[in-house]
Amino acid sequence: MFVTLPTLAISLPLGLAPALTSAGARYWSAFQLTFPHPWFIASIIEGLGDQSICLTWAVASASDVVDRVECMVRERLVGLVCMIPPQDSDTGQWSSREVASIWRARDPDDGTLAIVFRDRAGQDFAAGFRVESAEQFVDQQLIVALSQHGTKRC
After folding, report:
1. In the chain, where are the structural domains located?
2. Mapped to the 3 state alphabet, what secondary structure does 74-115 carry?
């Protein structure tokens, strides 16, 4: 989850493009993570043709990503990056993995359903409270595959 603080609230300049503002919305210069866990940056196309814009969302969990994807036209999601916390990163610092597809799959150890991400290098991983390999997960069902080419990118 993300935390915003009143001291980080900002005002946008008057006359800013209406597509970039929302009635009643509040804007923040930063947000804080409640604890270091994997989270996501999603790029979503809003609108059609020349009138479309790219919106970028910070999404708190794998299940939140899937909930949002399942409620939209799949082609609107044009980019997804998983932010990897220091304890799960090879560098000991925040790092990222670009997601190519999202799957539902069964954990072979305990039989539970999980959300599995396949990165652009073809590696499967689960991103719950920790990032773990999901190479051995079975009964995979595709939720969404992100296009590498041909779709408007942000």
Report:
1. 34-145
2. HHHEEEEEEEECHHHCCCCCCEEEEEEEEEEEECCCCCCEEE
pLDDT in the model for residue 103: 93
Taking CA atoms, 138 is separated from 108, 124, 148, in Å, by 7, 11, 25
pLDDT at 50: 81
Rounded distance between C-alpha atoms, residue 59 and residue 44, angstroms: 12
- CA distances for 43 relative to 21, 76, 117, angstroms: 17, 8, 16
How big is the chain, counted in residues?
A: 154
Phi, psi of 74 (to 5 degrees): -55, -35
pLDDT for the residue 62: 93
Three-class SS state of 20: helix
**Cα–Cα dist 154/99, whole Å:** 15
**N-term to C-term CA, the chain:** 24
* Ranges of residues in the chain whose predicted pLDDT is under 70: 14-23, 129-131, 149-154
Q: What tokens does 3 get?
A: 């935390």
Rounded to 5 degrees, φ, ψ at 54 are: -100, 125
Asked if residue 36 lies in contact with residue 85, where contact means CB atoms within 8 angstroms, the answer is yes
Q: Name 133's bridge partners.
A: 125
